[in-house]
Amino acid sequence: MVLTEHVIQTHGLTKAYGPHIALDSMDLKVQKGATGLLGPNGAGKSTLIKTLLGLIVASEGEGSVLGYDIRSEGVDIRKRIGYMPEYDCLNPDLTAIHQVTYSGELLGMNPKVATQRAHEVLEYVGLRDQRYREVGTFSTGMAQAAKLATSIIHDPELLIADEPTNGLDSQSRKFMLNTVKQIVEEGGRSLLMASHLMDDVENVCDRIVMLHKGKLIAQGRIEDLKAIDREVEVHAWGGASKLEEHLTDSGLTVRRTGRVLRVIRQDETTYDQIIESADATSCQIRRMHDHEPSLEDLFLVIMERLGYEVKSSKDLLSPSPSARKVDSPGELLP
Ligand SMILES: Nc1ncnc2c1ncn2[C@@H]1O[C@H](COP(=O)(O)OP(=O)(O)O)[C@@H](O)[C@H]1O
Ligand SMILES: [Mg+2]
Description:
The chain is an alpha/beta fold and 334 residues long. The protein contains twelve helices and 16 strands. It has a six-stranded mixed β-sheet with strand order 6-7-8-3-9-10, sandwiched between helices. A hairpin with a 2-residue loop joins strand 12 (254-257) and strand 13. Magnesium ion (MG) binds next to helix 1. Adenosine-5'-diphosphate is lined by residues 17, 20, 22, 39, 41-47.
């Protein structure tokens, strides 16, 4: 065991399935708190999680979770963290209370304590009235909640949830996200939540780790990462295309959709430059303000900078990503 300020840390972590590189030399640093593990399907999120839990052996590199070595101390890691897997891991013939108690016993809990805790966590995830029902009769939302209950029975300090909202309707999805958020906020626990849904991550997490095709493309606080995508939104009236031309000629980067221009903010003078260009082209500015990028905007900017040609994040988030790599990715972001 090593002492570290990071709940998860890896260095050069690589996992190959035959010739396929699923994790490509990852240097990961996950701090306390809620971190979203984002990336399109096939990016390597589940492989990374399983490698961190010591369920899959890394091909190269090293890492630690809560200070325990992922290569040699997988058992210690799995005892201390809560893992909510992507796949269906419940026994359909067991009642929820039975299932959750059993998972506690597997973790070494005394059967009496496990039973008591099982009642508590099932209530916590909203399954109080369904405790004695067989899991096989559960809806997807209820089954996901039961999975969450099994993963928190031992009150872990770190919860690793792989696509916890998969297959949920909007109401159960909201409930799941709120429950997970509450788990983290109460008692200063940490969370690593894999998702291909940017909204889910933005809702719960203040940090992200972004993967694409097995590579780490960004990590850090969402707020800090968004700072790389500062744009000024300009609503123009009469001559938006002339204004666009003038701004481009004066060295600014502009994207225009009809009368709305998004100008990359270089420094404080960008505003003045826009006003000057509007004057010069007799274009009227109706509104002008800093644009607050969404995680989706951020993802697109990062992909663009790394040399991937993407039309929209939907390209990347579809089951078979159609993003086309135009040239090799440059430097990894922060
Ligand atoms: N057991 C396996 N054998 C071979 N290839 C695998 C295996 N598991 C995953 N992969 C491949 O590794 C890549 C990453 O998969 P995965 O980690 O499941 O991605 P994600 O969870 O981000 O959707 C995919 O291309 C997938 O097809
Ligand atoms: Mg996955």
